[in-house]
Structure formats: C-alpha cells, structure tokens
Amino acid sequence: MPKRPLKHIPAVEITDTQTWDQPGSFRWLREWPTGEDIVGMGYLCPCGCGTAGEIRFARLGEVPRSPTLKWDGNREHPTIAPAFTHVVAGQTHWCGILQRGEWIGVTYDLNAPP
Asked: How far, in Å, are 14, 21, 25 from residue 18 at the CA level?
C-alpha cells in the first residue's frame, strides 16, 4: 500500500444532537446500563472516507480485550496509546495515534478519498 504522512486532524467530540460527519469526530462510549463510565470511543476515520471505528479502553480490574487501548482521562484533548490501525474491508486504511486532541496519521491509502 502506498503511504505518505497525514496532517494533524482535530478530534472533535460530537454530542447526541450534532451531525456525525466531520473526519476525526468522535463520541464517547459509555458503560451499559448506567451510562456513567466512559469505556471507549466511536470515531470517524480521520482521513475523511466516512468509515466509522470503535476503540475500547483498558479498565482496572477488567480482563483486557484485543485490542484494548489506554486513555489518559482527558475529555477535552484526549490521548490514546499505543498507536492503532483503522481497517476497512480487511485492508489497513489508516494508522496513527490520538495525541492531545489531534489524530496524527502515520500511514493511509493514497486511493482513499481526500
């Protein structure tokens, strides 16, 4: 797959009343049924293709699932570790990190829409 650097894309939290269409936008996933604890995030691919992904966070006392990522607890400018890959139709589509509220891409598919 051809690769090139991806610019920094802001991670913008989308509420239930907002439209889910901005690349890199996300919604917090909450524990069911209480809805109190944040357990992960759903996001739109930062490249702008419009595909959605989901990240689950590691939680104390819980058996880790694969993949399970670590969140720094910052709701305004989140950081997720380690880097992760967004896969579309079995192909690596985007790979990078979410750091201080910005998606920083390492690779993406040149054939994907801008």
From this structure: 6, 9, 11
Q: What is the 3-state secondary structure (H, E, C) of 35-57?
A: CCCEEEEEEECCCCCCCEEEEEE
What pLDDT shows up at residue 5? 56
28 CB-side CA count, 13 A: 17
Give the neighbor-by-neighbor strand order of the sheet with 52-56. 26-30, 38-44, 52-56
Residue 80's SS3 state is: strand
Task: Please report whether residue 16 resides in a domain.
Answer: yes
d(CA 103, CA 21): 16
Model pLDDT, residue 107:
57
Decide if 89 is inside a domain: yes
Domain of residue 36, residue span: 8-108
pLDDT digits (tens, 9 = 90+) for 33-85: 776 789 999 999 988 888 999 998 887 777 767 677 899 999 999 999 888 88
The predicted structure's pLDDT at residue 67? 73
